[in-house]
Write a structure and sequence with these properties.
By secondary structure, the chain is of the alpha/beta class. The protein is built from five helices and eight strands.
Length: 216
């Protein structure tokens, strides 16, 4: 960006993801004092320099009070689980061998909407001031042979989705009951939850902003 904008701006992302987690959508902002004459050309030039696993979709001008992270209203993650061997899904899904009861897993996932404190699923010793989050959807659905867990919240804690999925898999494998899953949430104790599942199956899929956020 420095070469295109004649200055070295600080680029601020909408959030951070663990190593190995994918982002199908990510938003970032930077403050710019000089006008960008051709936004489409900037997209093209950025993509010509970025590595092959990163692509810029568009660049938009927003008002100075908008922030990529703090203006976001919600984020949506997906976790992909495959039960059959699929060489094309190795880097985007986690294979789980054995039976899984997805009806029970959905019943357990629905309990997440009833809570706000998710200390049980947070990485220990983080610098967050609160472990409260508002989850608005959490469910499993089969899509083209892959089971997809979709979860949306106003914010997420470090390792939160991966530890939730790991604990839901315990429910699906009938290692714990739905009632025990709820007890784990209420315990606010990370040691009671399941293991944090592999990062490769997790993707940040959407970030929602207020309708007027991108008005110039």
């Amino acid at each position: 960006i420095f070469g295109f904008c004649k200055q070295r701006p600080d680029v601020v992302g909408a959030g951070r993801t663990d190593t190995g987690v994918h982002a199908r959508k990510m938003v970032a902002h930077f403050d710019q004092t000089q006008k960008i004459e051709n936004e489409e050309n900037l997209v093209f030039r950025l993509n010509s320099l970025l590595p092959k696993d990163i692509a810029v979709e568009k660049v938009e001008l927003v008002s100075s009070d908008k922030h990529a992270r703090f203006s976001a209203r919600s984020r949506t993650y997906e976790y992909h689980v495959m039960q059959e061997k699929n060489p094309f899904g190795i880097e985007l899904a986690t294979r789980i061998i054995g039976d899984l009861d997805f009806d029970l897993m959905n019943e357990a996932a629905s309990h997440l909407l009833q809570y706000t404190d998710f200390t049980s699923f947070s990485k220990l010793h983080t610098d967050t001031k609160t472990n409260n989050c508002k989850i608005t959807e959490a469910y499993w659905k089969k899509r083209e042979g892959i089971w997809v867990f979709t979860i949306t919240a106003d914010r997420f804690l470090r390792n939160m989705v991966r530890s939730i999925v790991g604990t839901l898999l315990d429910v699906g494998q009938k290692k714990i009951t739905v009632e025990q899953f709820a007890d784990i949430v209420e315990s606010k104790n990370r040691q009671n939850a399941g293991q944090s599942i592999s990062a490769c199956g997790l993707s940040l899929c959407d970030i929602e902003y207020p309708a007027n956020c991108f008005e110039k």
